[in-house]
Amino acid sequence: MTDDPIVWARDYMPIHQSLSAEYGESKPFENCTVAVASHLEYNTGVLIETLHTAGAEVFFTPSEPESTKGEVVEYLDAQNGITAYAEEGMSNEAFSEAQHSLLDERPEIILDDGSELIGKAHECHPDVASEIRGGVEQTTAGITRLEAMEEEGVLQFPVYGANNSPMKHRFDNVHGTGESALTNIAITTNALIAGKRVVIAGYGYVGRGIAQKARSLGARTIVTEVDPRKALEAHMDGHDVMSMDEAAKRGEVFITATGTSSVIREEHIAEMEDGAVLANAGHFDVEIELSALNVLAEDTSKPAKGVTRYHMPDDRRLNLLAEGRLVNLTGPFSKGHPGEVMDTTFAVMFEAAVDLLTTDLTAGLYQVPDRLDRAVADRKLETLGKTIDEPTDEQRTYDSDWRETDTGF
Ligand code: NAI
User: Fold this and answer.
1) 38, 140, 260, 335: which to mutate for ligand 1, most atoms within 8 A of CB?
2) Is the pTM of this model over 0.70?
3) Domain 174-330 belongs in CATH node 3.40.50.720
4) Could you tell me the distance, in angstroms and rounded to a whole number, from the CA of residue 141 to the centre of ligand 1?
5) How far is CA 146 from CA 99, 142, 347, in A?
6) pLDDT digits (tens, 9 = 90+) for 225-279
7) pLDDT tens-digit series, residues 339-397
8) Which residues pair with 307 in a beta bridge?
9) Regarding the domain with residue range 7-168+338-384, which homologous superfamily does it belong to in the CATH classification?
10) Which of 39, 173, 180 to mutate to test ligand 1, by most ligand atoms within 8 A of the CB atom?
11) Contact status, residue 275 vs residue 299, Cβ threshold 8 Å
């Protein structure tokens, strides 16, 4: 028996073990306060613990009120130098208040998700924002907000956009969300994916991962897009591509992964067949228009844990999972992303935060430097016991020579 709720996650996060061993000695965050806003699940617990081991005083708060695991919060909060602004089952108001209270602690570094803390610091705590040394943003949606802030010229400190880093989006978005979204849909519905017509809205990193994994389970996949190049990519990857107007009539399972709002609207809901399952893997609870479901339905029921059934006047039953919030993070069976992918994502954020302490950057949104991303990849390969080739001197010379006479083109 153990009272340590993150013992299992730790086993699947070997990069963090390696970071703890190295930075637990050098303590780069000594005398530094770090705020973390994230889904407060087991893997995030390991990140917070690693920051603390590396010398930081850590304050943490949820980035989504529904995904908090109370046992993780209690375990971390009981440690000296780690303070929770969180509890399981917070209302939207309490969630927002907690973030503001955390900002009153005047953190120096922010590790953010959805730009929750960075946005609020700029909007409501300008005196705090002016003293923040830097931030690191985890998500696509957060980076979009930061780009808007930069465009308006209001961003007060440097922020690394971790989502744009290859070690984040090529693994976390594609494999982490791909696998965990489908796993949660399967567990919640206890229905087969094999043979189902699965509609995926958005063919970015997340949508592509879901579509490929659904097809490998035997689904007949349909992709909807607004970007013609992404639509063509989906087509050439072998998925059926069509508008949501058309897909709404054909799908049995719908999964949104666009990052934008109202992708499934009233006109689509009106066309869906009896028994359709609706889930969101994008941001917050805005991709499936909940107000439209409520307007169209004459009644709702809860036929299974994590499922809200909307009863339509024409006897169709539409099944919404996890109340339209992130199905892989907020459903009753969700544990967040697999530890291995959060290990790489959080390692990128951790290394970027260490870099902010020593690199002199002006205010603005930055890519995580390639050297940091590669260092995380190297560390990961090392934990896997894998070695790769080094380019030879001859190859380096060949690659850098552009003169026709030298290369023999
Ligand atoms: P992305 O930018 O690579 O892909 C989004 C795609 O959606 C783009 O191809 C875009 O053209 C398409 N799109 C936009 N509006 C659309 C519409 N109305 N209909 C159909 N397609 C549309 O972004 P990525 O990395 O795939 O992330 C997507 C969303 O998933 C973001 O909100 C991100 O924050 C979220 N996310 C969720 C995770 C989770 O754990 N559930 C993990 C990682 C990201």
Assistant:
1) 140
2) yes
3) yes
4) 8
5) 18, 6, 21
6) 999 999 999 999 999 999 999 999 999 999 999 999 999 999 999 999 999 999 9
7) 999 999 999 999 999 999 999 999 999 999 999 999 999 999 999 999 999 999 999 99
8) 304, 321
9) Adenosylhomocysteinase-like (3.40.50.1480)
10) 173
11) no
